[in-house]
Design brief:
heterodimer; A: about 300 residues; mainly alpha; 11 helices; globular; B: about 300 residues; two-stranded antiparallel ribbon; about 70% helix
Chain lengths: ~300, ~300
């Protein structure tokens, strides 16, 4: 067996792959957080719960209605996104004039409610979700075994991330969005319905989290706690990247996933904490984050 | 310092309550309430008067608990030194994390503290001396100053009462000192305070450090009361709980955190058998407080009486 730095290549590439998978989810989730933060100025603490809702929604569709993975990919973001729209209209919309911290507190409370309700209903143990037939199995690349589903997750999340980047940075809709981020009053004066745009943006961010949840369901077990710890790591990712740039959050997400994977190979004890340590270092050197501008 | 009469009356009522309540309520429950009340007061010093929302205060509670429990059990420290050692450990952690966290403002500050606390949590999860999921159990309470045997529940109760009152008065004194006034100015308008020549970051750092230290005092005391230091105290849900206590009692009020802590601890006590309903009801209180009840219990009462409380 070949070795690199005394580590079998098999293990090295295996952990790199896991790192890339985790990175895909970091990127999708921090992207959603950044989009929501850009327009609403709210840190969506419910994001982890909404990711969990996405996974559960897919699970329920599969077990109760017999609807498979591919349809879930389309239906779940719409359903969970719609609950996001309701939350924005009924609650978040009342907070825009207040200190931004209230948005954080409200969404934290919502996350507790949602996670508690799901725990009541489904217990704490993980539920299995089978992967789609078309993506079962894998390929032997010679130096490692690549399961098809994992390759799909990486490619799909890259496409979704870059698609979001394209819409926001290169289309007219995105231009409105960026303009409203800078100066909502002026954009409103041009006859654009900013409140509706805000509502839809929140719905879109939530839908991204739900989509990530569906994609995660076959890899991780579906459980009420699956989003709770993940969201804190994603917060650290956001602090490291800064929320100023869309591409920045995508790059940071994937990059940190890979670093975490490598840490598992070379110094497993630190794999839980490495992202937080990087955050501390970035804060010392560049407090605004790698891609951020100090607001 | 001269206290307004409304606050003097409230202070007397609070002291009388905690002195007389053991006649009716379990002393262990009341000691828990006092520890959390001190924890919430320490947290309120930062958010209510400095405008800094820390979402990682559990790290100070947990660290002090572990340090106090370890020093009392393994090194055989007497209780006064165990509490001092725990508090000092929290202060040191406050110094290190504070230097990092105050580099960012507002929402980023909250996320940074949350992430730092999570890092500390993972460290305690893996470190050998914390006993992992079991925690440090059967911590000896020892003999205070070599004369007062704390295994006697009333001796322990009196000690907790004195610590709580001392911590509370220290927070009160800080808020009403020139230092506290500058903190308020920074909360209201940071650029203005900066332009007036105040070293804003130094003031924030001092407030953060003091808050961490007092949170540590609460954690160390709590470890001796329950003879236990566990991961629960370092988990992010504990950080959320102290936010909730302070929000419910009234951000930026003097007595709010005490009342909020008491309500939340009572609620947990009675809902404990219902499992996830504790979390759900906490979430509901969060939502209600943020949407319609932002002054909190004491804030509303003070507003009704038109007196500072």
């Amino acid at each position: 067996m070949t070795e690199i730095f005394g580590v079998p290549t098999q293990a090295l590439f295996g952990q790199l792959l896991i790192g890339l998978i985790n990175g895909s989810f970091y990127a999708l989730l921090s992207l959603g957080l950044a989009v929501i933060f850009g327009l609403l100025n709210i840190i969506n603490f419910t994001h982890g719960a909404q990711y969990m809702m996405g996974a559960f929604c897919a699970y329920v569709l599969a077990t109760k209605l017999g609807i498979g993975y591919w349809w879930s990919l389309a239906i779940v973001p719409l359903v969970v996104g719609a609950t996001g729209v309701i939350i924005e209209r009924l609650m978040l919309a009342k907070l825009y004039k207040l200190d931004h911290l209230y948005g954080l507190l409200l969404t934290f409370g919502l996350a507790l409610i949602i996670q508690g309700l799901f725990r009541n209903q489904y217990g704490t143990s993980g539920l299995p979700y089978s992967m789609p037939e078309a993506l079962a199995g894998g390929k032997n690349l010679g130096f490692m075994f690549l399961p098809n589903y994992r390759a799909w997750v990486i490619v799909a999340s890259l496409i979704v991330c870059l698609g979001t980047w394209f819409v926001i940075e290169r289309t007219k809709l995105g231009a409105y969005l960026r303009a409203a981020t800078e100066n909502p009053a002026l954009v409103q004066a041009f006859g654009i319905n900013v409140p509706r745009m805000i509502t839809l943006t929140y719905g879109f961010g939530v839908a991204l989290a739900a989509l990530a949840g569906v994609m995660a369901a076959p890899i991780y077990q579906v459980s009420p706690q699956m989003g709770a710890d993940l969201i804190i790591v994603v917060f650290a990712v956001v602090v490291i990247g800064g929320m100023g740039s869309i591409l920045g959050s995508i790059l940071t997400g994937f990059g940190l996933g890979i670093i975490e994977g490598l840490t598992k190979v070379f110094y497993p004890e630190a794999s839980n904490t490495v992202i937080f340590v990087i955050m501390a270092i970035v804060l010392m050197i560049k407090p605004a984050g790698l891609f951020g501008a100090q607001k | 310092m001269s206290m307004p009469r409304s606050q003097l009356i409230a202070l007397a009522l609070m002291a009388a309550f905690f002195l007389l309540a053991p006649l009716l309520l379990y002393p262990i429950f009341l000691m828990k309430a006092m520890c959390f009340a001190l924890f919430a007061c320490a947290f309120n010093l930062l958010i209510g008067f400095g405008g800094l929302l820390s979402f990682g205060h559990a790290m100070f509670l947990g660290t002090a608990g572990y340090a106090a429990a370890h020093s009392a059990k393994v090194w055989g420290f007497p209780p006064e030194f165990a509490i001092l050692f725990g508090t000092a450990a929290a202060a040191l952690l406050g110094l290190v994390t504070g230097l990092l966290a105050i580099r960012r403002q507002g929402i980023y500050f909250a996320m940074t503290t949350l992430a730092l606390a999570q890092m500390i949590y993972f460290f305690y999860l893996q470190a050998p001396f914390t006993g992992g999921e079991d925690g440090i159990q059967a911590v000896p309470r020892g003999t205070l100053f070599g004369i007062l045997d704390l295994s006697n529940i009333w001796a322990m109760y009196g000690t907790v009462f004195v610590i709580f009152m001392a911590g509370f008065l220290l927070v009160y004194r800080t808020i009403h000192s020139p230092f506290g006034q500058v903190l308020k100015a920074i909360r209201e308008n940071e650029p203005r305070a900066l332009s007036l020549g105040y070293d804003v970051n130094r003031y924030k750092m001092l407030a953060y450090l003091l808050s961490a230290t007092l949170a540590g005092l609460a954690g160390a005391t709590k470890a001796l009361v329950f003879q236990l230091a566990s991961l629960t105290d370092a988990h992010w849900s504990m950080s959320g709980e102290v936010v909730l206590m302070t929000l419910l009692g009234g951000l930026g009020t003097v007595f709010g955190p005490v009342v909020g802590a008491f309500i939340i601890i009572t609620m947990e006590n009675y809902l404990a058998q219902l499992g996830a309903w504790v979390t759900i009801s906490q979430g509901i209180i969060f939502v209600i407080c943020v949407l319609t009840f932002r002054r909190g219990v004491i804030g509303e009462i003070g507003n009704f009486l038109k007196k500072p409380l």
